[in-house]
Amino acid sequence: xxxxxxxxxxxxxxxxxxxxxxxxxxxxxxxxxxxxxxxxxxxxxxxxxxxxxxxxxxxxxxxxxxxxxxxxxxxxxxxxxxxxxxxxxxxxxxxxxxxxxxxxxxxxxxxxxxxxxxxxxxxxxxxxxxxxxxxxxxxxxxxxxxxxxxxxxxxxxxxxxxxxxxxxxxxxxxxxxxxxxxxxxxxxxxxxxxxxxxxxxxxxxxxxxxxxxxxxxxxxxxxxxxxxxxxxxxxxxxxxxxxxxxxxxxxxxxxxxxxxxxxxxxxxxxxxxxxxxxxxxxxxxxxxxxxxxxxxxxxxxxxxxxxxxxxxxxxxxxxxxxxxxxxxxxxxxxxxxxxxxxxxxxxxxxxxxxxxxxxxxxxxxxxxxxxxxxxxxxxxxxxxxxxxxxxxxx
Length: 394
Description:
The chain is α/β, with parallel strands linked by helices and about 400 residues long.
């Protein structure tokens, strides 16, 4: 192509980025459902394995369809390199273990997705990695937590499930001054609304299962950053431990990227309306939505995000009220997933954050009255009607 793909606008990158047609000239990207590849000679195989001859060796390492997805997402994110993996948790786990070893120290925000919290709290200590949790909104807490052996910082912003916002640029400055790398889980914001690499982050991770697929079909994850760091930290671990994504899943995610911008913007517009509807209802004690002025970190959100996501959380005062709301929904599904075309709501204390001890849930403000909602693509009038009648039931 005559144009430099990096000069394209996001919508064009999402359609054309990484496109690699076969000799048949197909319109839609081809799916290469193959485990391995063949070589013209033993010498050609030797050159391929040695890295002297570019090409594919084994789909656990790389695959043509997977590579198209990686190149397209990297182009959108503004990253030099992307590696796709089997799930969002595979991305988080690999991102951390590639940067840490026995004796290292990790600093993480307290408000993390339940499985991320489990990895940091239960898994990494088995391999000699110690973690300090901090209030992610408190920059002095980040500074105080840094040690000579702090090698990595984990940020989730907006955080799951209460959409807490971390000042990513400020935390990056603190971490880099201490010699630590910064990993940002950007799944709630999506690459449409937030660019952690531009804010100073070293690594960005996604659960592509969420907004990137956006239609409840497949699992996938991604790790992005500059080539030198990605090559040093992740090449061997991905090659030898095998958290590989299926080429079919990568193809589905490629098709998801084509409509990501349209879907996320429409969902976010609706979420902003619904946040106000819920806030005005007497059943709601409080609403957490980054686009509202009453969000505790609204100023930070407006400084680093160009949109405020399709996620919102609201407190109905008790588990009983939250469950009455969920059971009263007719249109919105009860589901722990998010980013889907279908609107979904869940009770985090008994689903996504169930494994987190109650005292830790309370530390992040997650009481049993909270509901987390992922707003879909249904008409805003229909969603409003369903949510209001469920709030009445609550």
